[in-house]
Amino acid sequence: MSKQRMVLIIASVIGIVAAFLPWVSITILGVTATVSGIEGDGMITLILFIIVGVICVLGNRAEPLGKIKFLCALLGAGCAVVALFAPVEIGGILTLLTGIGVCILSFLRMERKETV
Questions:
Q1: Per-residue pLDDT, 9
Q2: What one-character-per-residue DSSP string does 38-78 give?
Q3: What is the reported pLDDT for 13?
Q4: What are phi and psi of 36, to 5 degrees?
Q5: Which terminus has fewer CB within 10 Å in the chain: N or C?
Q6: Contact in structure between 22 and 35 (CB atoms under 8 Å)
Q7: 11 close to 55: Cβ distance less than 8 angstroms
């Protein structure tokens, strides 16, 4: 498997886990209520990160992503934009950072060049 695909799969797994973490925490009169990502917009990011992971395991896994990398970057940007509106707790912040990471990693070629 290419390093690019492997790193994107790891980022997708982190994004998927972040959807289940707390995104918002509110304390009123000593009572704290937390909302995990999947109880709100995190469901959108969960689906987008799953799609990125599936894209990375399809096709020739030994080769880096071809033109489909633009779709992965777009999906990562979508996750970052969704998380941008609620990055109060660790889940939202982790989703924001992972979405930005997917955008950047989609365009990096991480293969070693052979020197002669």
A1: 92
A2: GGTTHHHHHHHHHHHHHHHHSS-TTSPP-TTHHHHHHHHHH
A3: 95
A4: -80, 165
A5: C
A6: yes
A7: no
- Structural contact between residues 41 and 86, judged by C-beta atoms closer than 8 angstroms: yes
Domain that holds residue 86: 3-105
Give the list of residues 6+ apart from residue 67 with CB closer than 8 angstroms, or none.
none
* Number of compact structural domains in the chain: 1
- Answer whether residue 65 is part of any domain: yes
3-state helix, strand, coil in the chain (%, to 5): 60, 10, 30
Residue 111 in any domain: the answer is no
pLDDT per residue as tens digits for the range 44-80: 999 999 999 999 898 888 887 888 888 889 999 998 9
Do the domain assignments include residue 112?
A: no
Torsion of CA 63, 14, 77, 75, to 10 degrees: 60
Whole-structure pTM value: 0.84
